[in-house]
Amino acid sequence: MTRDSDGTARRRFVQLLGASTAAGTGVSTTAAAAGASARTAQTDDGSAADGTDSGLVTVESNANFETTVSRVEAVLEASGVALLTTVDHAANAASVEQSLPPTTLFLFGNPAAGTPLMQAERSVAIDLPQKLLVWEDGGDVFLTYNDPQYLAARHGLDAADEQLAMVGEALQQLVAAIAGGE
């Protein structure tokens, strides 16, 4: 069901989102594989242990699924970031008589931060607004988002390093606040 509600430049984007007031980091990364139970460890630069780059950053939450989902909305609101929509993939699966562990996608952003990136390279619009996936695997809850550095490389955003770095920092701060409940 749907409910309305690479580098330095990315970090600036996240800061522009209002995330600079969110709690600190301490973020660990893993790559979410096609199956929720399969995760590939990533190095600090975001590349997977097998040498590939998934472009995903995954952080484990210290809370159950419902609490983590409620934190997303609260942290985004407190940070002044607009929550554009929420997609409950598990509910969608149930609507066609299939099962899926709890899996909810949040789309959020700030046009003041995203527009300059789209002006620099229009194709980045396919990856904006920002997305945050909250998912459960065997009782553990994870948050996954696109690494801004990966998106920069994907879209050739060479001139937006400072802004992307800010976006990356802001995303890390948002996710750390949600995962840790800070």
Automatic annotation (TrEMBL):
Q: Which domain of life is it from?
A: Archaea
Provide an example Pfam family for this protein. Answer: DUF302
Name of this chain's protein: Uncharacterized conserved protein, DUF302 family
Per its UniProt record, what Gene3D superfamilies does this chain match?
TT1751-like domain
Stored InterPro entries: DUF302, TAT_signal, TT1751-like_sf
Which PROSITE patterns does UniProt cross-reference here?
A: TAT
What is the organism of origin for this protein? Natrinema salaciae
Question: Where is the DUF302 domain positioned along the sequence?
Answer: 87-148
